[in-house]
Prior knowledge:
With 256 residues, the protein is α/β, with parallel strands linked by helices. 46% of the residues lie in helices and 14% in strands. It has a single domain, classed as Rossmann fold, CATH 3.40.50. The chain contains 9 helices and 7 strands, in the order H-E-H-E-H-E-H-E-H-E-H-E-H-H-H-E. The chain has a 7-stranded parallel beta sheet, with helices on both faces.
Amino acid sequence: MTSTLRDAIDLSGKVAVVTGAASGLGKAFALALADAGASLVLGGRRRDRLEETNEEVQALGRASLAVPTDVSDPAACEELATAAFSHFGRIDILVNAAGIATVVPALHEEPSEFRRVLETNLMGSYWMAKACATHMLPGSSIINIGSVLGQTSVSLPMAAYSSSKAALLGLTRDLAQQWGGRRGIRVNILVPGFFATEMTDGLERERLDHINETRVPLRRLGELSECASAVVFLASDAASFVNGASFVIDGGLLTS
Length: 256
């Protein structure tokens, strides 16, 4: 019997690991995946906020597990993946949403600040991908979370963040090639523009408004649900032939 699109999007019976799930886009991704039927394993540094997400997932009727995790630590990434597999017996989806940023002029940024961003955004995604891939079966999906700042500049002093997100594009392509054929694991990258999150709350409102008015054809910030729906698609069987792709959701910013 030919499956319908609704069947292909359904994530019932699948287990998703989401890092950065304590807030922002990571939390939105976790709730959207749960809404689509997946069980969740939630990783994040802030235990109290992570538990809030865990409670919201369970309120949707999904099984979930919260594991406080700092993805810049390879051992912690292994522990998160092991906890997920031990608890649920499988890992079908990984969303690498953990991320931090600094807004500092390059001449004033400390080496430790620059390293901390790369260790979380880039290396953390790599450690998590390696840790989860050992437990994944063919048909599984890894989704890295990039940024338009990995492909363009909007006059914000964010060298560390932009570097980390540009590097994620290369990491995604390489893992997609390595694991797509050998393991049947699809690896893609979601490339968001500017969304209403804690990260954008830290930017000057006047500068953010200027970006929306001059660079974004839709003239606004994105809604979390508009980004989360793309994660559900990439995680699902509806995207079974999508591998190594950059999925841009930016209101048209990269066209300007």
